[in-house]
Amino acid sequence: MLKKWIDCFKNKNFRIQWIITFLFSVPVTVLLPLVLAFVEKRNGVRLADPVLEILVPVDLSVFIFILLYSLSILGIIHLLHHPCSALLTAQSYLVVLSLRMLCMFLAPLEPPAGIVPLHDFFLEHTFYSGNVNLKDLFFSGHTAIIFLFFVTIENRRLKMVFLAGTSCIGAALMLQHAHYTIDILTAIAASYLSVAVVRNISGKFSGIYCKEC
Fold first, then answer.
1. 3-state class of 122 per DSSP?
2. 170 located within any domain
3. How far is Cα 37 from Cα 31, in angstroms, rounded to an integer?
4. What's CA 101's distance to the chain center, in Å?
5. Taking all residues of the chain, what is their mean pLDDT, rounded to a whole number?
6. What is the pLDDT of residue 121?
7. Contact 95, 144 (CB under 8 A)
8. Which of 148, 172, 184 shows the shortest CA–CA distance to 62?
9. At 45, is the secondary structure helix, strand, or coil?
10. 8-state DSSP, 46
11. 211 is in which domain, residue-wise?
């Protein structure tokens, strides 16, 4: 594994892409809690959601937390053996976060009727500043990150695991009334779009996504 990373870092374009990724991550990391705090304080619109109307709210926070971070750790461990895929995932995730901040800023929403607050113990002690956010809705970050692994990981068996994980997390979020249906569907589209953008822009200029470094 280490040898793969050493060999890839011998590639000038690979090094430059990681530097760009790190530099881009700084403003994204700084802006995210600010945007979340702003979104939480303003008034929004409550959407009519026919799907949620037929679902009885239930607290699945623990299930979602365990599934999300278990799959995330699995994805990271796999990507440690595939440096170029790891770079693609990291860059795509930053694009996803940027899109999510833009969507939340442009589409102020009130929580769905009957919402059961989603407790994410990691986010509450980091980007949420100790709070339980209810209005970071459009679109679902939990769904987006798991589907992002599905798109960027090449292993077919793992892809099926992440596809199933995306379905489970999306369904659980809706059962908890923590997200609207459109939040889940848009998260999937945003992840797919982000990878496509990175492949066509970053990959076009560096040429590192066509093969493993």
1. helix
2. yes
3. 10
4. 12
5. 92
6. 78
7. no
8. 172
9. strand
10. P
11. 57-107+141-213
Specify the amino acid at residue 121.
Answer: F
C-alpha distances (whole Å) from 8 to each of 18, 149, 178 are: 11, 21, 41
DSSP-assigned letter for residue 111? P
Tokens of 112: 């769905």
Cβ pair 191, 92 in contact under 8 A: yes
How far is it, in rounded angstroms, from Cα 211 to Cα 172?
Answer: 36
Q: Residue 169 falls within a domain, yes or no? A: yes
CA 169 to chain centre: 12
Rounded to whole angstroms, the Cα distance separating 140 from 113 reads 17
Does residue 92 form part of some domain? yes
Residue 3 has what pLDDT? 84
d(CA 23, CA 166): 29
Spatial distance between the Cα atoms of 155 and 159, rounded to a whole number of angstroms:
6
For residue 162, is the peptide bond before it cis, meaning its omega torsion is within 30 degrees of 0? no
| Mean pLDDT of the 56-65 span | 96
Number of domains in the chain: 1
Q: Determine whether 39 is exposed, middle or buried from the number of CB atoms within 10 Å of its CB (0-12, 13-18, 19+).
A: buried
Q: At which residue do the structure tokens 């982000």 appear? A: 194
Q: What's the predicted TM-score (pTM) here?
A: 0.91
Q: What CA dihedral angle connects 76, 168, 32 and 30, to 10 degrees? A: -20
Burial of residue 108 (CB within 10 Å: 0-12, 13-18, 19+) is: middle
Decide if 24 is inside a domain: no
